[in-house]
Structures are given as C-alpha cells and as structure tokens.
Amino acid sequence: MSVTVEEIIRPMTEKDLEAVLALEACGHVSPWSEAMFREELANPVARIDLLWRGSDLAGFLCAWRVSDELSILSVVTAPLMRRTGVARRLLMQALERNGRSGMVRALLEVRSSNCGAIALYASLGFRQVSRRRGYYQDGEDALVMELRYQHCASSGC
Ligand SMILES: CC(C)(COP(=O)(O)OP(=O)(O)OC[C@H]1O[C@@H](n2cnc3c(N)ncnc32)[C@H](O)[C@@H]1OP(=O)(O)O)[C@@H](O)C(=O)NCCC(=O)NCCS
Q1: How many angstroms separate the alpha carbon of residue 148 from the centre of ligand 1?
Q2: Could you tell me if residue 126 is inside a domain?
Q3: What Cα–Cα distance (Å) separates residue 28 from each residue in 22, 25, 123, 147?
C-alpha cells in the first residue's frame, strides 16, 4: 500500500533558516552562509521558494525578479529526493508565476561541468547563450543559459 505525502511550495521565512542551511550544505561546493540567506530574505526583488514533502524540505529555488527578467540564482534538491521532479516543479512554478506577470526572459549561470543541472534547464527550454571563462573561484567556466518567454516548456507561460 503506498502512502501519499502532501507536497507544497511556499516562500521561505526566517523560521526556515536552519532547514535551508542544512540543505544548502549538501548542495554546493561553496554554500551560501546564513548572512547571505538573510540578505536574500530582506531583498525585495528576491524570492526563495521551498518545496516540502510532508515535514521534509525536499528542495528550494532562489530567484530575483527585476523588471521583465527572472534571474535564477540557486536550485538545490535534497540528495535523497533527487530525480523525483523536485527541481523541475520549483522551476516550472516560478516560470509560470512570473510568466503571468509579464516576464520576457529567465537567465541563469551554471558550472560547465554540472551536466545534471544543464540537462534539467535544457529540458525546460533554456539554451546556452554564452560562456564566462574562469567565472567561479576555482577557475571553472560558467555557462549562461536563457529561456525566452515564448519558448517556455510549461503551458502556463
Ligand atoms: C541539479 C539538481 C538541482 C536537480 O534536481 P532534481 O530535483 O534531482 O531534478 P529533477 O528530478 O526535477 O530532474 C528533472 C530533469 O532534469 C534532468 N536531470 C536532473 N538531474 C540530472 C542528472 N543528475 N543527470 C542527468 N539529468 C538530470 C533530467 O532530464 C530530469 O528528468 P528525468 O529524471 O525524468 O530524466 C540537483 O541535482 C541538485 O540539487 N544538485 C546540487 C545543486 C546544484 O547543482 N544546483 C544547480 C546549480 S545552482
């Protein structure tokens, strides 16, 4: 018998800091600090969405909306919940929500070696538009990927 776990997406608040920091620590080589998350929480153009499965934080997405452009800053899924559609759902929800209010394009940077993330973004319609050589502190290149509004993979965009 399978048990259905409730899944919700809601904006992050200060109360979620501990859970988000724990998830961030297993997501990146150079994780964001608590101060950086607090800065994002206070930033009027930033929004951090959390996807909860029951009482477990499954993933989060941080994005900035400036004028008609959405910048995706970070997407992280809990290691045990990867490849179960968490990041796709977070991205699609953000793209749909912003698409309804006039977004023209979404942009992001991704490490050139991060094949999983690149495949995820490509599956949603993002295309590489440039490469920033030596962009990261360890010297790795960043790929800049863009999704034009009319190319959005989701029907709501
Ligand atoms: C990249 C990351 C966010 C993907 O999250 P996820 O929740 O596992 O992704 P989803 O389950 O929504 O995957 C959707 C699609 O993306 C692609 N994809 C995701 N991870 C992949 C991987 N490791 N290898 C190949 N394709 C991958 C697939 O097309 C997948 O669809 P499928 O499972 O039906 O084949 C996750 O691996 C992660 O948190 N990595 C560490 C942090 C990071 O690198 N973030 C991105 C840069 S900020």
Answers
A1: 21
A2: yes
A3: 11, 6, 22, 23
- Decide whether any atom of ligand 1 lies within 6 Å of the 25 Cβ: no
Parallel, antiparallel, or unpaired for β 7-11 and 69-77?
unpaired
Tell me the best of 26, 83, 108, 140 to mutate to test the pocket of ligand 1, counting ligand atoms within 8 Å of each CB and taking the most. Answer: 83
Taking the centre of ligand 1 as the mean of its atom positions, its distance from the CA of residue 87, in whole angstroms, is 7
The encoded tokens of residue 97 equal 């929500």
30: in domain: yes
User: pLDDT digits over 77-121, tens only?
Assistant: 999 999 999 999 999 999 999 988 889 999 999 999 999 999 999
pTM: 0.94
Q: How does strand 69-77 pair with strand 105-111? A: parallel
* CATH code of the domain containing 84: 3.40.630.30
2 is a domain residue: no
Does some domain include residue 36?
Answer: yes
- Look up the domain containing 60 and give its range: 7-151
50 lines ligand 1 (CB under 6 A): no
